[in-house]
Amino acid sequence: MTTRRSDATRAAILAAARERFAADGFERATIRSIAADARIDPSMVMRYYGNKEGLFAAAAEFDLRLPDMAEVTPGQAGSVLVGHFLQRWEGDDTLLALLRAAVTQEGPAERIRAIFAGQLGPLAARLAPDPAQAPVRAGLVATQMLGFALCRYVLRLPPVAGLERDEAVAWLGPTVQRYLTGDLRALPRS
Question: What pLDDT is stored for residue 54 in this prediction?
Fold first, then answer.
Protein backbone atom coordinates (compact mmCIF):
# COMPACT_ATOMS: atom_id res chain seq x y z
CA MET A 1 0.00 0.00 0.00
CA THR A 2 2.80 2.42 0.90
CA THR A 3 4.58 1.76 -2.40
CA ARG A 4 1.44 2.59 -4.38
CA ARG A 5 0.91 5.76 -2.37
CA SER A 6 4.55 6.71 -2.88
CA ASP A 7 4.26 6.09 -6.64
CA ALA A 8 1.07 8.15 -6.77
CA THR A 9 2.75 10.98 -4.86
CA ARG A 10 5.74 10.96 -7.21
CA ALA A 11 3.44 10.95 -10.24
CA ALA A 12 1.46 13.89 -8.84
CA ILE A 13 4.67 15.82 -8.16
CA LEU A 14 6.02 15.17 -11.66
CA ALA A 15 2.74 16.15 -13.32
CA ALA A 16 2.57 19.37 -11.30
CA ALA A 17 6.25 20.10 -11.98
CA ARG A 18 5.87 19.64 -15.74
CA GLU A 19 2.94 22.06 -15.81
CA ARG A 20 4.61 24.60 -13.54
CA PHE A 21 7.98 24.53 -15.36
CA ALA A 22 6.17 24.90 -18.69
CA ALA A 23 4.09 27.82 -17.42
CA ASP A 24 6.66 29.66 -15.31
CA GLY A 25 10.05 28.45 -16.55
CA PHE A 26 12.77 26.99 -14.36
CA GLU A 27 13.77 30.18 -12.55
CA ARG A 28 10.27 31.31 -11.54
CA ALA A 29 8.84 27.90 -10.64
CA THR A 30 9.14 27.15 -6.93
CA ILE A 31 9.03 24.00 -4.87
CA ARG A 32 6.16 25.53 -2.87
CA SER A 33 4.06 26.26 -5.97
CA ILE A 34 4.68 22.79 -7.37
CA ALA A 35 3.79 21.19 -4.04
CA ALA A 36 0.62 23.29 -3.85
CA ASP A 37 -0.34 22.22 -7.38
CA ALA A 38 0.22 18.57 -6.38
CA ARG A 39 -1.67 19.14 -3.09
CA ILE A 40 1.18 17.89 -0.94
CA ASP A 41 3.59 19.34 1.58
CA PRO A 42 6.76 20.87 0.04
CA SER A 43 8.86 18.58 2.22
CA MET A 44 7.61 15.63 0.16
CA VAL A 45 9.02 17.19 -3.02
CA MET A 46 12.36 17.60 -1.28
CA ARG A 47 12.21 14.05 0.07
CA TYR A 48 11.75 12.51 -3.37
CA TYR A 49 13.83 14.86 -5.54
CA GLY A 50 16.29 16.65 -3.26
CA ASN A 51 15.96 20.12 -4.76
CA LYS A 52 14.47 22.02 -7.66
CA GLU A 53 17.22 20.92 -10.05
CA GLY A 54 16.64 17.27 -9.22
CA LEU A 55 12.90 17.68 -9.70
CA PHE A 56 13.45 19.50 -12.95
CA ALA A 57 15.75 16.76 -14.25
CA ALA A 58 13.15 14.13 -13.45
CA ALA A 59 10.23 16.10 -14.89
CA ALA A 60 11.60 17.70 -18.03
CA GLU A 61 11.98 16.16 -21.44
CA PHE A 62 15.25 16.99 -23.14
CA ASP A 63 15.90 16.92 -26.85
CA LEU A 64 19.36 17.83 -28.08
CA ARG A 65 17.75 18.60 -31.45
CA LEU A 66 20.80 17.28 -33.23
CA PRO A 67 21.19 18.61 -36.77
CA ASP A 68 20.54 16.45 -39.81
CA MET A 69 24.10 15.62 -40.82
CA ALA A 70 23.06 14.25 -44.25
CA GLU A 71 23.74 17.63 -45.85
CA VAL A 72 27.02 18.22 -44.00
CA THR A 73 30.36 17.55 -45.65
CA PRO A 74 31.88 14.61 -43.71
CA GLY A 75 34.97 16.63 -42.74
CA GLN A 76 32.81 19.39 -41.22
CA ALA A 77 30.69 17.23 -38.92
CA GLY A 78 32.72 18.12 -35.82
CA SER A 79 32.47 21.85 -36.36
CA VAL A 80 28.77 21.67 -37.18
CA LEU A 81 28.09 19.63 -34.06
CA VAL A 82 30.11 21.96 -31.81
CA GLY A 83 28.30 24.99 -33.24
CA HIS A 84 24.99 23.27 -32.64
CA PHE A 85 25.83 22.45 -29.02
CA LEU A 86 26.95 26.02 -28.35
CA GLN A 87 23.66 27.28 -29.72
CA ARG A 88 21.72 24.81 -27.55
CA TRP A 89 23.63 25.70 -24.37
CA GLU A 90 23.24 29.42 -25.00
CA GLY A 91 19.57 29.25 -25.93
CA ASP A 92 18.14 26.78 -23.44
CA ASP A 93 18.38 27.22 -19.67
CA THR A 94 16.87 23.77 -19.18
CA LEU A 95 20.04 22.02 -20.36
CA LEU A 96 22.15 24.18 -18.06
CA ALA A 97 19.87 23.39 -15.11
CA LEU A 98 20.20 19.70 -15.89
CA LEU A 99 24.00 19.96 -16.07
CA ARG A 100 24.16 21.76 -12.72
CA ALA A 101 21.99 19.12 -11.09
CA ALA A 102 23.92 16.25 -12.68
CA VAL A 103 27.17 17.36 -11.09
CA THR A 104 25.91 16.53 -7.60
CA GLN A 105 22.96 14.16 -8.01
CA GLU A 106 22.76 10.66 -9.46
CA GLY A 107 19.26 11.02 -10.95
CA PRO A 108 20.12 13.98 -13.17
CA ALA A 109 23.52 12.41 -13.98
CA GLU A 110 21.74 9.27 -15.20
CA ARG A 111 19.42 11.47 -17.23
CA ILE A 112 22.37 13.15 -18.98
CA ARG A 113 23.95 9.75 -19.67
CA ALA A 114 20.70 8.50 -21.20
CA ILE A 115 20.22 11.65 -23.28
CA PHE A 116 23.71 11.61 -24.73
CA ALA A 117 23.74 7.85 -25.34
CA GLY A 118 20.25 7.78 -26.80
CA GLN A 119 20.50 10.87 -28.96
CA LEU A 120 24.19 11.22 -29.79
CA GLY A 121 24.87 7.48 -30.08
CA PRO A 122 22.87 6.98 -33.29
CA LEU A 123 24.54 10.01 -34.89
CA ALA A 124 27.95 8.64 -33.98
CA ALA A 125 26.97 5.25 -35.45
CA ARG A 126 26.09 6.89 -38.78
CA LEU A 127 29.34 8.85 -38.95
CA ALA A 128 31.84 6.37 -37.48
CA PRO A 129 33.95 4.19 -39.79
CA ASP A 130 32.91 1.25 -37.57
CA PRO A 131 29.39 1.60 -36.06
CA ALA A 132 30.40 -0.78 -33.25
CA GLN A 133 32.60 2.05 -31.92
CA ALA A 134 29.65 4.46 -31.70
CA PRO A 135 29.15 4.26 -27.90
CA VAL A 136 32.79 5.17 -27.23
CA ARG A 137 32.82 7.86 -29.88
CA ALA A 138 29.57 9.39 -28.60
CA GLY A 139 30.93 9.27 -25.05
CA LEU A 140 34.08 11.11 -26.10
CA VAL A 141 32.04 13.77 -27.89
CA ALA A 142 30.00 14.12 -24.69
CA THR A 143 33.20 14.67 -22.67
CA GLN A 144 34.06 17.62 -24.86
CA MET A 145 30.62 19.18 -24.98
CA LEU A 146 29.72 18.65 -21.31
CA GLY A 147 33.18 19.63 -20.10
CA PHE A 148 33.17 22.76 -22.21
CA ALA A 149 29.65 23.67 -21.05
CA LEU A 150 30.62 23.15 -17.41
CA CYS A 151 33.72 25.36 -17.74
CA ARG A 152 32.07 28.04 -19.89
CA TYR A 153 28.56 28.37 -18.45
CA VAL A 154 28.72 27.04 -14.89
CA LEU A 155 32.27 27.67 -13.65
CA ARG A 156 32.76 30.60 -16.04
CA LEU A 157 36.46 29.83 -16.42
CA PRO A 158 37.73 33.18 -17.82
CA PRO A 159 39.64 32.02 -20.89
CA VAL A 160 36.90 29.60 -21.92
CA ALA A 161 33.98 31.87 -21.02
CA GLY A 162 35.60 34.68 -22.99
CA LEU A 163 36.03 32.77 -26.25
CA GLU A 164 34.03 34.04 -29.19
CA ARG A 165 31.69 31.42 -30.62
CA ASP A 166 33.78 31.00 -33.79
CA GLU A 167 36.92 30.55 -31.70
CA ALA A 168 35.26 27.85 -29.60
CA VAL A 169 34.16 26.03 -32.76
CA ALA A 170 37.68 26.32 -34.19
CA TRP A 171 39.23 24.86 -31.02
CA LEU A 172 36.73 22.07 -30.39
CA GLY A 173 35.60 21.17 -33.91
CA PRO A 174 38.73 19.20 -34.94
CA THR A 175 38.69 17.21 -31.70
CA VAL A 176 35.01 16.32 -32.05
CA GLN A 177 35.64 15.48 -35.72
CA ARG A 178 38.40 13.06 -34.71
CA TYR A 179 36.13 11.48 -32.12
CA LEU A 180 33.38 11.00 -34.70
CA THR A 181 35.31 9.88 -37.76
CA GLY A 182 38.97 9.42 -36.87
CA ASP A 183 40.82 6.27 -37.78
CA LEU A 184 41.84 4.53 -34.56
CA ARG A 185 44.62 2.70 -36.38
CA ALA A 186 46.35 6.04 -36.91
CA LEU A 187 46.57 6.75 -33.17
CA PRO A 188 49.99 6.32 -31.56
CA ARG A 189 50.32 3.15 -29.47
CA SER A 190 52.21 3.05 -26.20
Answer: 85
Residues found in the chain: 190
For 25: left if phi > 0, alpha if psi spans -120 to 50, otherwise beta; the answer is left
190 by Cβ neighbours in 10 Å (0-12 / 13-18 / 19+) ranks as exposed
| Predicted structure pTM score | 0.76
The distance of Cα 190 from the centroid of its chain, to the nearest Å, equals 33
| Check whether domain 2-59 has CATH 3.40.630.30, yes or no | no
CATH number for region 69-186: 1.10.357
Domain positions in the chain: 2-59, 69-186
* Three-state secondary-structure class, residue 5: helix
- Who's near 102: CB < 8 A, 6+ residues apart? 57, 108, 109, 111, 112
d(CA 36, CA 40): 6
